[in-house]
Design a protein that fits this description.
By secondary structure, this protein is mainly alpha-helical. The chain folds into two domains: about 110 residues, Rna Polymerase Sigma Factor, Chain: A, CATH 1.10.1740; about 80 residues, Arc Repressor Mutant, subunit A, CATH 1.10.10. Helix 2 packs antiparallel against helix 3, helix 2 crosses helix 4 and helix 6 packs across helix 8. The longest helix has about 35 residues. The chain is globular and about 55 Å long. The N and C termini lie far apart (about 55 Å).
Amino acid sequence: MKTVLPSESVLIKQLVNGDKSAFTALYNQYFNDVGLFIFKFVKSPQIAEDITQEVFIKIWEGRDKLGEIRSFKAWLFTIARNHTLNILKKISNESAGMGEVLKNYRFHDNPVENKIVEKEYMKEVKNILDSLPVQTREVFRMCRDEGKTYDEVIAILGISRSAVKKHMVRSHKIFKESINEKFRISLGILLIFM
């Protein structure tokens, strides 16, 4: 027997009140469409999936404002577009700025100093990885180091898609906060050095 979902307006009202099952229903309904929409901007399935996850986190965190929205779908895609463009703009700014830094960095190249900086960055990355819960560390390693897709990780570890996403969101948040706190640079800039 097929389960009949409440109407979107009912789900929105439930979501405003913090109903996780309403959020899950909307997430399941729109996740793939939003991901495909974002993919048109970023051209990477993994990055599109990560940004889509961030969009839905924004929706959950801002759920108390959803009662003012007339069309959830239009609003959702506007949020997805704006968030994606903000990320692309930030990456572009960081890349341009980092390109200038690296150009000058290479001009004043000091192999001994470079090795010390690289060693310190790698030590911090290892410390952050070691601090992650075992399952989160394994999911991160498989997705980032081995380049596996979420579906491949699901098949290997036997966990759900939402669990994989939860682990990746957790690891990104921990990396971002730790790197910014320790080195006062963004994770994206650190990755250029690595």
